[in-house]
Amino acid sequence: MSHSIHGARVLLIEDNEGDYILTKELLAQRPDLEFQLEWVASADEGLAALIENRHEICLTDYRLGTANGLEIVRRARERGSEVPVIVLTGEHNQSVDAEAIEAGACDYLVKRQLSGDQLTRSIRYALVQRSVEDKLRALARTDQLTGLANRGEFMSELDFALRRSGRGAKAFAILYLDLDGFKQVNDTLGHAQGDLLLQEVANRLTTCLRSVDLVARIGGDEFTILALDVESSRDCATIAQKVLAKLSEPFRLGGHEVLVSASIGISMFPDGGRDADELTRNADTAMYRAKKEGGHRFQFHSNEITSAARDRIDIESELRKAIAAGELDLVYQPQVCIGSGQITGFEALARWCHHRLGDVPPTAFIQVAEDIGCIRELGAWVLRRSAMDYKHWERLGLSGPSLSVNISAHQLNDPHFPESARAILEEAKFDPSKLVLELTETAIIGDLGVARSNICRFHSFGARVCVDDFGIGYSGLSQLRDLPLDVLKIDKSFVHNLLNRPKEKAITHAIIDLAKRFELEVIAEGVESEDQARTLTALGCGLAQGYHYYRPLPSAAIGELCAKAAATNSDSVRQSANVA
């Protein structure tokens, strides 16, 4: 905020309109200064305006009805107002004069003795005093070498973040950073170059972080970052990784190219500490663990969180390359008729075996694909590859079973997805009437209008739609009512507890009955025993998938099943002909 007297915004708290007019006329005696006067007539309005810090100067009457102008000053200072206040009164009183200064006012003027020049001088003095105080406060809050916040300012902001967290704000975290190899720079190039390096580090930290984050130098080569509004450890890991990458770029110091790295410790509120001391201590401890591991890395206050965050970053960095390079694979789990054991369909399931990460579970990499925005590419690959595999099985004799492919919320809500899916099927010469698109209940949460429109477009080219994991979401009944669905899959948690929990059995029975009333095909997933299969049959469910029948199989194994089935059918035809 500019504190120039020219055009200064003046707040007047005055309950007497005549005194307001008088003050306005006094300020008008200096037309060259063009004061912008705002008048409020009550103590409450005046306090609210002061707290907003919108004005360069405030003039307040000493008496405001039953209120006291000095009390307004005190309360405004307690609420963080930094606006200079000049107290106006009808009579001179030395004790009131002293009381006004003690309350935080910068001057005390008697109305009947007041002239335009006197009022202007008082305003000028207050603004100069405010400017000096601002500079002193800035010096007290700033690290003189780097221009960043210092330790005191960081702790003040941390305390504010802790108070803010109690009012429903998002979580926050502390990143404690120490440079690796800084002592060597000082020893070989001298302290002047070391100081220059610290300044360059400060610049890089400032430019690579978000505007809501606070960066501070707390001493030596140690820096802290207060990362506000973070959703999870993944957000913190992303910030840390960005900082590590930025600081690993070479620095140019006095004609020398210098390479340094950093060790970062992270503590998240509230799990990493519930007060400032505990949060900073845990972040500091985590930083030293990172340094002991060799530096150029981050550590959370918890080893488990660190491991999970690093795994997540590894998956993010490798997944796009894996999709583009065709490193993922598909397996297929057959769906069967419980009574005959005949295969009625296959569900395509993505798998990823990475040369360094090993087998990455679908629950990990599919969520990552959604988060980093490559789920559409992954979904298109699964649809194209599974359609091509199915066509291969048909050449080996497959006839009849459906092909189920999972789609995400992003795909369901993408207005272009139905047409891109149709194009992929046409390219593979795949019969769309054999395709079942599976989506979870949670994928449908959102714009039901878009979901309904896309499902209708799937139907227009012959595909069917299945709700997977039914029963564990929050909107199952409304989905059955509002969406044109075709198939319902009972979640495996109900099947797992079917035999030992009567309530689970009752819910399963109700789901099957409800699906029949809506004329939906029902499949029970996760069937692992003959007893479960018999119970499902008794409840009216005729289709199932699970380890009791088949584990997920590679495409080649499905091809062998198709070839055997075709050969068996051919033998039966020949035997029938011989008997005839």
Structure write-up:
This protein is of the alpha/beta class and 580 residues long. It folds into three domains: 9-140, Rossmann fold; 151-301, 2-Layer Sandwich (Alpha-Beta Plaits); 327-559, EAL domain (TIM Barrel), CATH 3.20.20.450. Strand 9 and strand 10 (222-230) form a beta hairpin. The relative contact order is 0.05. Mean pLDDT is 86; it is low at 570-580.
Gist of the model:
The protein is of the alpha/beta class.
- Work out the radius of gyration: 36 Å
How many domain units? 3
In oligomeric terms, what are we looking at? single chain
| Major sheet characteristics | 8 strands, mixed, barrel
Fraction in helix: 40-55%
Strand content: 15-25%
Distance, first to last CA: 102 Å
Q: Which stretches are low in confidence, meaning pLDDT under 50 for 5 or more residues running? A: 570-580
Predict the CATH topology of the largest domain: TIM Barrel
| General shape | elongated
Strand order of the largest sheet: 15-16-18-19-20-21-22-23
Average pLDDT for all residues: 86
CATH architecture of the largest domain: Alpha-Beta Barrel
Please render the helix and strand layout as text.
Elements: E1 9-13, H1 17-28, E2 36-40, H2 43-51, E3 57-61, E4 63-64, E5 67-68, H3 69-78, E6 85-89, H4 94-103, E7 107-110, H5 116-141, H6 151-165, E8 171-180, H7 182-189, H8 191-208, E9 214-219, E10 222-230, H9 233-247, E11 251-253, E12 256-258, E13 261-268, H10 276-292, E14 297-300, H11 303-325, E15 328-337, E16 343-354, E17 358-360, H12 362-372, H13 375-395, E18 402-406, H14 409-412, H15 417-428, E19 435-440, H16 441-444, H17 448-460, E20 464-470, H18 476-482, E21 487-490, H19 492-496, H20 502-517, E22 521-525, H21 530-539, E23 543-545, E24 553-554, H22 555-579
Parallel strand pairs: 1-2, 1-3, 3-6, 6-7, 13-14, 16-18, 18-19, 19-20, 20-21, 21-22, 22-23
Antiparallel strand pairs: 4-5, 8-10, 8-13, 9-10, 11-12, 15-16, 15-23, 15-24, 16-17
Helix pairs in contact: 1-5, 2-3, 7-8, 8-9, 9-11, 11-12, 13-15, 13-22, 15-17
